[in-house]
Design a protein that fits this description.
Chain lengths: 111, 122
């Protein structure tokens, strides 16, 4: 059971906008700790996708954006493309556990 | 080239131990923390701990306190993850990843190794 809760899967057609939620608690996201998002393609290691304040590593398009409210964070992907199909994970820090925590992951299916 | 290279796949019997190595290149190794994250087949990511590549101190979640040992060798820019008393539930890909130079707070892992598959089977 992951400390951060993500939907197991989301789907959308090319060109649409999808959102992936990441629900935490008062000891992690709700305490103001930053949330990071990773994308993992099949058979590959995860890669940092986007940080708070929408900081994106070189090469990540502006179609990816993040937001946070209270104890939850969200990743939005606009103009969905077939290449966006992957697993997405959120990550933060938990003060009760004194460590890094991950969400359970969300599989994005492009219809 | 900035990268993390990991040792090859391992097959172990229950009760055995395994050491996975992670060699850094292309950046100042001792400036960062190196984290270990594992992923069982078809499952999500699980944080196993981190080591200060400079000072050598490490932090682990309670789940792995007694079974995981992280060490580093600054002369070869390498970090080693020892996992003892293996069980079938330890079958997973083990990733090392570079984190920022602090141990408290969220840690963006901006560089990942390719992963090492550890299979535990009798």
């Amino acid at each position: 059971q992951s400390v951060l809760t993500q939907p197991p899967s989301v789907s959308g057609a090319p060109g649409q906008t999808v959102s992936i939620s990441c629900a935490g608690t008062s000891s992690n996201v709700g305490s103001g700790f930053a949330v990071y998002w990773y994308r993992q393609l099949p058979g590959s290691a995860p890669r940092l996708l986007i940080s708070e304040n929408n900081n994106r590593p070189s090469g990540v398009p502006a179609r990816f954006s993040v937001s946070k409210s209270g104890s939850s964070a969200s990743l939005a992907i606009t103009g969905l493309q077939a290449e966006d199909e992957a697993d997405y994970y959120c990550q933060s820090y938990d003060s009760s556990l004194s460590g890094v925590i991950f969400g359970g992951g969300t599989k994005l299916v492009v219809l | 080239q900035v990268q993390l290279l990991q040792s090859g796949a391992e097959m172990k019997k229950p009760g055995a131990s395994v050491t996975v190595s992670c060699k850094a290149s292309g950046f100042s190794f001792t400036t960062f923390y190196v984290h270990w994250v594992r992923q069982a087949p078809g499952q999500g990511l699980e944080w196993m701990g981190m080591i200060n590549a400079g000072a050598g101190d490490s932090v682990h979640p309670q789940k792995f306190q007694d079974r995981v040992s992280l060490t580093r060798d600054t002369s070869t820019s390498s970090v080693y993850m020892l996992l003892t008393n293996l069980g079938s539930e330890d079958t997973a890909f083990y990733f090392c990843a570079r984190g920022p130079p602090y141990s408290v707070g969220p840690a963006p892992l901006d560089l990942w190794g390719p992963g090492t598959l550890v299979t535990v089977s009798s």
